[in-house]
Amino acid sequence: MAQADATLMDTGGPAAKRGGTEKLVTADGVPLKRALERAQRRRKLVALGLVGPLLLFILTVFVFPIAQMMWLSVSNPQVVNALPRTLEALQDWDGRDLPPEPVYAALHADMVEDLERERRDRLTGPLGIRLNYEISAARSAISRTARQVDSFEAPFKDAFMDAHRLWGQPELWRVIKREGRPLTTSYYVAALDREFDEFGNIVQRDENRRIYVSLFGRTLMLSVIITAMTFLLGFPIAYYMSILPMRHANLLMICVLLPFWTSLLVRTSAWIVLLQQQGVINSGLVGLGIIDDANRISMIYNMTGTIIAMTHILLPFMVLPLYSVMRTIPPSYMRAAKSLGATPSTAFRRVYFPQTLPGIGAGGVLVFIISIGYYITPALVGGQSGRMISNEIARHIQQSLNWGLAAALGTMLLVGVLALYWLYNRLVGADSLKLG
Amino acid sequence: MKSTLKLIGASTAASVLALSAAQADDPVSLTIVSWGGAYTESQVRAYHEPWMEMNPHVTIINDDGSANALASLRAQAQAGNVTWDLVDMLPSDAQLACDEGIIMPIDHDEVLAAAPDGTPPTEDFLPGSLGECFIPQILYSTVLTFRPGAFPEDNQPSSIADLFDTENFPGRRALQDRPGTNLEWALYADGVDPDDIYDVLATPEGVDRAFAKLDTIKDDIIFWTEGAQAPQLLADGEVAFATGYNGRMFDAIEVEGMEAVIIWDGQVVEWDGWVVPADGPNIDAVMDYLYFATDTQRLADQAQFISYGPARASSSELVGEHADLGIDMAPHMPSAPENYFAPIVLDNDFWVDFGDELRERFANWMLQ
Amino acid sequence: MAMPAYYTTKDKVWHYTFRVICFAIFFFLLAPILIMIPLSFNAAPFFTFTREMLTLQPEGFSLRWYQDFLSSESWMRSIRNSFIIGIAATLLSTTLGTLAALGLSKSEMPAKGLIMGILISPMIVPLIISAAGMFFFFSSIKIAQTYLGVVLAHAALGTPFVVITVTATLVGFDHSLTRAAANLGASPTRTFFKITMPLILPGVISGALFAFITSFDEIVVVLFVAGVEQRTIPREMWSGIREDISPTILAVATILVLISVALLTVVELLRRRGERLRGMTPG
Q1: CB contact under 8 A, B99 and A137
Q2: Which of A285, B269, B314, B356 is most solvent-facing, going by the fewest CB within 10 Å?
Q3: Under a CB-based contact definition with an 8 Å cutoff, are residues B247 and B267 in contact?
């Protein structure tokens, strides 16, 4: 009832002012229950109205674009658009030997029709690029054929096979038939280092062409190492700050917050300056005579560089949650354990450490989530061995133009991160996310 | 006869264009996308500045987005919102973009200037350089360079085979972290004739052969990514050999005074040039610009600022001295006869077809 | 951490070792950033301390990299862009984020968990995925390579910080104050500006600062969505680092560090003020 009163008063409506308490009916004669419900609904609308603009904004400029990108990982219009007749003729083909003449004739008709389109609207170009993802040289099979197709005469089978050797291989036809659907799984198949064999089964790729699974593996490994490093470095200083008087702790906090607030590129370039061959550390070591000039240590443009720079960049994300948890642990627990006869290490292990677990969980998941999707630092200091999955996604979007594969890799990464976040939320609760 | 007519036509067209352009009131702003750094600088000095002087109403905005131009071009085209006017790209990228229909097919004889003696562009541009949608500007090459101090004076390397000879020429080698050039050289060093390299590489056995050859030096390889790193690694004494773009190496050796020697044997040559985005905002102005910027004199002028060879035969005799150093540029061009004795011409069709597969294989090989 | 008198020698050794380790870690955190500051005054184009610098001779130091930076048209344009984009994105994300936080703090808010999850998703999703999605989408609605596109993108990335900080401020918010104001006849708008706003202001400002620094430091989205006209400071640094890293980068970095220090101080002061206002002990 107190809650209901408060609700009424808060809206400041007439019901609140005149609402009688004896008859449970408002001055308008509306039963109090309904008035309350109405007020409640109004407040719900107000709350929604406040959240609405941002929700709409995020859904439009953030959630929708990502969903649209994920769509690219299954969208497969190229073959369907370019070769409608061929696909129809292929329907009865068993997928074993070369298709019969009518299929080649249908292909001829499709390609001739395409020649009549305006240059920029032609469908065979995108078709060739699409097929080349599945089978090398398919692009030049298509483009070379397109250049001469209007002079072909029946029997078309021979004409096509003369134009390019791939038309005489059932493999190309299998790809056309398989990809002749508006949706495809083949980008995911490729992103898992797999391919279709001649019977349409999904099999592992040749060992020397597998890269994405091991790249995911390396990304995970680097993230684990970086998370472990931030924990190893973050735990002692968070503990140290938590036992200091507040004044001193705040001073040291600046050491943690300054890097946190400094531009990512500044920090990355700082590491380049320090770690490169002609950089501060190597020159210092040479100057001190520890190493000689010819044997400068390579600490950057490799995995070491990525690990050092990213540990530094992400360390505050570990220290801040750890510190805020450790602050709340009363020192009397440790003292009690010790006075009951525990050695300092036992007391630490059995009494103190378990209480820091929420902080470790929060910091660990945060660092892990951030590092698994990191792009900038590996791109700048990672060299070859320090590259991560994000760099490969960027390469497929910007350079190789294989957006479907980029989207498939990105979707897999996103699902992984969201799963981790869900776990984090279950374990720690997103509310514990604190800043600064 | 035809070419004479064309010449007259071309020169009148040029003067009329220049006049009418100068009188035009509407200011035009062209966004030209290129590679940035010294390369864009050479284009600014050889093409943009004289063109803007003749056409005061034109301003040119330089964007250094060439490395990722394909993605932006495709996105702009799909949205029907093309904001770029002219893009500098490699022929393999141009081939992809052309297949997609996002850049314009070019009738070279129609839109480009003839040589001063009237030779039409299709004959004047070096053989194999023109593409369906591609207008070449320069010929650059990836060359092997070594540090003479790394080897005794009486035993200096001189060929690509020496790169793979770790017994006689020990030391680390800096190679680019992509399959192109490296696979070609592996086969060349393994005895394949430069003209047959791509036929061999198109077969699975040929690919295995190339990787097997690369395996022999794998432990000595340091990979580089950005063009600036290769000369840097040599200058620091990090490596004995480095592969690199000949322009970068020229700069490091002649301008910065780095101790290094270029081996022209097996240089991998490739074109670089312009493409015009379909439905660009200022197609007419771009065409005027292209007519000017790819003529014989302008291409020769660019060689004053960077050691890349002009793509026109008629330009080569006009190549003069370096604008700032005053040294004769002709002997530093990849196309100079004394350098062009065993070139490997990069086959773009091959790389468009097999690039994805070989990149995966190469990435896998690097990780092993 | 005063040492208790009953400490044994072993305890003492551990005590000092621990302190040394901690200071080494603090050094690891701070040193890379601080070491760039003197190097940015290097007269020579190297990333090492020259003999002249170590012996503190004036000829070892110079302001040439600062001059380089200040006289470069592209750097100046990037500064202008960073501020234009940063401020516009901050205004947008702070307005939307504050309103949303007010809504979320109401007990009647339905589906709170789900909505909160969506609102803070820009903070969780890897930047490369956000950037790729925005690149495709913004291109298709023709706002890629425009200021509007970059501002919208940065505003989206900044809102979670505003939502989180303002929500945190509202946790300690005494709702009886607004009820009292309403009871005394103030309109909801008046109540908001006279009562709510001053009390949550510290949270709003620090959220806004977070949003600003997010935009100011953001590079991945800029790489994908911005054109040459919208290049920001991080984008310019990116080119500088990849092309050929010169001490000019260090001069820029030093200036950025100073800006961060200033912002950090403001946030700290606000935090203290906010806690005082809400009657909490500073901590």
Answers
A1: no
A2: A285
A3: no
Question: Contact A187/A408 with Cβ under 8 angstroms?
Answer: yes
Query: Hey, which chains touch C, using 3+ CB pairs under 8 Å?
Result: A, B
Nearest in space to A358 (alpha carbons), one of A283, A433, A298: A433
Q: Which residues of B touch C (CB under 8 A)?
A: 31, 36-37, 61-65, 71-72, 75-76, 78-81, 83, 226, 228
Q: Which residue of chain C has the CA closest to A314?
A: C29
Nearest to C134 by CA among C114, C158, C151: C151
pLDDT above 90 as % of chain C: 36
Please name each of the domains of chain C with its CATH number: 72-245 (1.10.3720.10)
Chain A residues in contact with C116 by the CB 8 A cut-off are 430
pLDDT band at B65 (very low <50, low <70, confident <90, very high): confident
SS3 B312: strand
Those residues whose C-beta lies under 8 Å from the C-beta of residue C199, and which sit 6 or more positions away, are: C169, C173, C177, C277, C278
- B/e letters for A342-372, b = 16+ CB within 10 Å, e = fewer, are beeeebeeebbeeebebbbbbbbbbbbbbbb
Query: Which member of C125, C133, C156 has the closest CB to residue A417?
Result: C125
Facing residues of B268 across strands? B142, B344
Q: What is the ipTM of this complex?
A: 0.87
Q: How far, CA to CA in Å, does B193 sit from each of A414, B337, B344, B349, C28?
A: 48, 19, 9, 19, 55
Distance between CA atoms of residues C237 and C256, nearest Å: 11
DSSP string, A150-187: GG--SSHHHHHHHH-GGGG-HHHHHHHHHT-SSB-SHH
CA dist., res. B78 & res. B93, Å (int): 17
Task: Please compute, for residue B177, the number of CA atoms within 13 A of its CA located in the half-sphere on the CB side.
Answer: 18
Q: Which tens digit of pLDDT belongs to each residue from A277-314?
A: 778 888 888 888 888 877 778 788 788 999 999 999 99
C-alpha angle with apex A271: A376 to C237, nearest 5 degrees? Answer: 50
Cβ <8 Å between A344 and C257: no
* CA gap A261, A258 in Å, rounded: 5
CATH code 1.10.3720.10 region(s) in chain A: 213-432
Identify which of C133, C141, C131 has the alpha carbon closest to the alpha carbon of residue B81: C141
Q: Are strands B86-89 and B241-245 parallel, antiparallel or unpaired?
A: unpaired
User: Residues C75-109: pLDDT tens digits?
Assistant: 999 999 999 999 999 999 999 999 999 998 888 88
Contact with chain C for residue A415, Cβ under 8 A: no
Number of helices (H) and strands (E) in chain C: give both, helices first: 14, 0
Of A243, A246, A435, the CB nearest to C283: A246
CATH topology of domain B2-138+272-327: D-Maltodextrin-Binding Protein; domain 2 (3.40.190)
Answer whether A129 sits within 8 Å of B100, measured CB to CB: yes
Judged by CB atoms closer than 8 Å, whether chains meet at A263 and C206 is answered as no
Q: ω before A354 within 30° of 0 (cis)?
A: no
Distance (Å, whole) CA C85 – CA C213: 11
The closest alpha carbon to C152, from C232, C210, C90, belongs to: C90
Domain locations in chain B as residue ranges: 2-138+272-327, 140-270+340-367
pTM (2 d.p.): 0.87
Q: Tell me the CATH number of domain B140-270+340-367, given options 3.40.190.10, 3.30.428.10, 3.30.460.10, 1.20.970.10.
A: 3.40.190.10
Fold of A213-432: MetI-like fold (1.10.3720)
Instruction: Tell me the DSSP string of C191-218.
Output: HIIIIIHHHHHHHHHHHHHHHHHHHHH-
Chain B partners (3+ C-beta pairs within 8 A) = A, C
What is the pairing mode between strands B86-89 and B58-63?
unpaired
Q: How far apart are CA A293 and CA A166, in angstroms?
A: 56
Nearest CA distance, C181 vs chain A (angstrom): 9
